[in-house]
Design a protein that fits this description.
mainly alpha, Fusion Protein Consisting Of Minor Coat Protein, Glycine Rich Linker, Tola, And A His Tag, Chain: A, Domain 2, three-stranded antiparallel beta sheet, 4 helices
Length: 312
Amino acid sequence: MKWLRSDNYSIPTLLAIGLHVGIVIAGLVVIDFSDNEVPKPKRPPIVNATVVDISQTTIGKRESDEKAAKQQAAALAEKKKKEAEQNRIKEAQRKALEEKQKQLAQAKQAKEKAEKQRQEAERKKKAAEQKRATQEAESKRLAQEQAEKKRLAEEANEKQRQELAHKAEADRLAEEERKRQEEAVKLAEKKKVEEAAAKAAAEEAKQRAADEAQMVQSISGLINDRVTAAWIRPPSARNNMKAQLRIYFLPNGEVRDVQVTKGSGDALFDQRAVDAVYKVRRIEELSKVDSYVFERNFRQVDLIFNPQDLRN
């Protein structure tokens, strides 16, 4: 900035000198070229060149003062500008410092708050874990108590069930024994009854068989007698001649058919025997015989025809 200030002092001086020189030259030009002035006899111009120190003149002093004032004002403005800039910088620095301090304070506060929140969260977490652990322990204890109660109840129920089962089994065995005894008594009584019935049935069957045999024998003899009575003895009949006949009866006693199953050797003897059966035609006593007895004994009757009064 010093070299600028040295130029500022020389430039006004040159300007002042140039100004005076210009005034002089302008005066000369006006005088030489004016048509309104009466021409004067020409005289050789007299030029007195004098070196004037413009700084010693009033204008120079004024300009110097103005220049000094301007420089002072500029310096003052520059100073104020610098001070303002410095103040602005300081204010900015102060604000930045305050902002930084504020941010640091906020960060510290946020950190402290976060730390408090973390500690609170940690405390709550520990409290929750403690509560959960307590609840789990209590739940485990209750579960164990319930399990123990359930086990004791199940044991009691199992014991009661076993006792009931034993009692039921004893009752069942007693009932089975009672029923067995009753069944044995019933079986014994039934056996006695059955034996008595069997004995009676046997006696009855025996008697019926005897009656049936007697009746069969009687009717068989009757059939034999009636066939013999209806028989016409042929001339060729001799003693010991016999023919075996099979007679088929109907339930009413009628003769349905008759066959010779074994001949006597004499055809006429055999035919006369068959004719005698057909002559009998019906045995009325058979219609009164029980159907069971008839079916067993008289549906078909094998008769050995052997007259006893033949000649030798």
